[in-house]
Amino acid sequence: MEDTIAAIATAAGISAINIIKISGSKSIEIVNKIFTGKNLNEVETHTIHYGFITYENEKIDEVLVSVFKSPRTYTGEDVVEINCHGGIATTNKILEVLLVSGCRLAEPGEFIKRAFLNGKKDLLEVESVEDIINAKTEKARKMSMNGVSGELTKMIKSLKEKLLSIIANIEVNIDYPEYEDAIQITNKILKNNIEEIEKELNKILQESEKGKLIKNGIKIGIIGKPNVGKSTLLNKLLNEEKAIVTDIEGTTRDIVEGTIYLKGIPLHLIDTAGIRNTDNIVEKIGVEKSKKIIEEADLIITIFDGSKELSQEDIEIINKIKNKKVIAIVNKIDLPNKINAKDLLDFKIINASFKNDIGIENLYNKIEEMFNLKELDNQDLTYISNARQIALIKECMEIIKEIKKSNDSNTEVDLIQIDLQRLWETLGEIIGDTYKEELLDEIFSKFCLGK
Fold first, then answer.
1. What residues have CB less than 8 Å from 183, skipping those under 6 apart?
2. 303-319 pLDDT tens trace
3. What's the alpha-carbon Rg for the chain, to the nearest Å?
4. pLDDT for 385
């Protein structure tokens, strides 16, 4: 981290203002060489100064330069931000001048990586910054802010401190048996403590499902045989004519997608090709894609034509989806009904007539009920939603199982201490107290150049 790095921090394009960020031990010195205005080497930290960027006696742009001196900066290093006019040519020219004056172009995520390595942010906060950049809903923003502000870190650090207290007491019991003030960690005491930690981790893990829901939304596959109203439903939900609707069977041959929001949660809707046996090569590919969506979707909306008895193709679809979360819609209730409701008892059923706008509101209510979306309105949204974090918590739960098994067998607590130490280190991986260099490269590479 000896280099001084620079990058454009604002999005590419024309705007009123663009920001170029510089970080490193020589950032103030380098910018001062190309800045016509106050001597930046002599100004106070956290101040902003008017002037011009000048190179080879040419004024490049009129700018405002902000100076932040270490250690009270985002990266923990000296940081300078140049606020210039938002033209593409102007911004690129200033960056070019910085690079020939001694800066190196920052790698993706290098600013926030330096913040992590200098102890300004932990991994939970880093990943929450990425989430807040990508947040598409107010709930996702609030959840991400709880990570950025350190609420998630406090939860993990609290568990680490409880574990450290147990480990420290075991160490004292072993090394200083004569020390009477130390708590004697017995199998019974360890059992109570480890069950308490397990309970808290289990709660975090269960609530991570809510976190994933807020962050990723619900992937919904609209399934059924041809001409039951799948594309009509998609168009009704999206309030636009996105999918082609005709009376000809097999019109939809590829998936058609769209996203709407329910209670602040994204619903990713996927209209699929009608599932049936067909000799048409193109339609056959569409049918295979439909079957794949069944495996991947969080929720299946399967549609049946209520004016016709269940066909063999309907029954095959029912068998394919019986182990999934399913809402069954019996469409065309404006026509005489020929479906026996007993055949669909395994599913939540909605009677509908898409033609007459009947059943859509009931569908929204059923989705809200199945995913407990009302609960999310009344909670603080301090959830873990990142796949890496969730995998590590699951690993912690497996270690706890091993600890409990050893403890129930009355294994000496000093031998169990090895697994307790492993549990403590795994919790540390969540917030980055311990980490592998390859992991950091992967995490920070996901950020843009100026972050």
1. 169, 189
2. 999 888 888 888 888 88
3. 29
4. 77
Cβ atoms within 10 Å of 244's Cβ, excluding its own: 12
For range 101-105, the mean pLDDT: 95
Residue 149 has pLDDT above 80, yes or no: no
Q: Is residue 391 part of a domain?
A: yes
Structure tokens at 95: 């960056």
Whether residue 366 contacts residue 208, with contact meaning beta carbons closer than 8 Å, is answered with no
Give the domain extent around 388: 138-213+383-435
Q: What is the CATH number of the domain that holds 240?
A: 3.40.50.300
Side-chain-side CA neighbours of 307 within 13 Å: the count stands at 11
CA 371/CA 354 separation, integer angstroms? 24
- Tokens 């939970």: give the residue: 124
Asked if the structure places residue 448 within a domain, the reply is no
Residue 372 is predicted with a pLDDT of 86
Q: Which of 221, 173, 166 is nearest to 196 (CA)?
A: 166
Amino acid residing at 115: A
Output phi, psi for 27, to 5 deg.
Answer: -60, -45
- Pair 116, 204 in one domain: no
In a domain, 107, yes or no: yes
Per-residue pLDDT, averaged over 241-269, amounts to: 67
What is the token pair recorded at 307?
């004016």
Domain identity same for 225 and 341:
yes
Indicate whether 270 and 293 sit together in one domain: yes
- CB-side exposure of 445: number of CA atoms within 13 Å? 6
Establish if 129 belongs to a structural domain. no
Long-range contacts of 360-363 (CB under 8 A, 24+ apart): 360/236, 360/237, 363/301, 363/327, 363/329
Look up residue 43 and give its two tokens: 């100004």
Burial zone of 39 (CB within 10 Å; 0-12 exposed, 13-18 middle, 19+ buried): exposed
Chosen domain end from 122, 155, 185: 122
Question: What is the distance, to the nearest Å, from the Cα of residue 152 to the centroid of all Cα atoms in its chain?
Answer: 14
Contact 46, 68 (CB under 8 A): yes
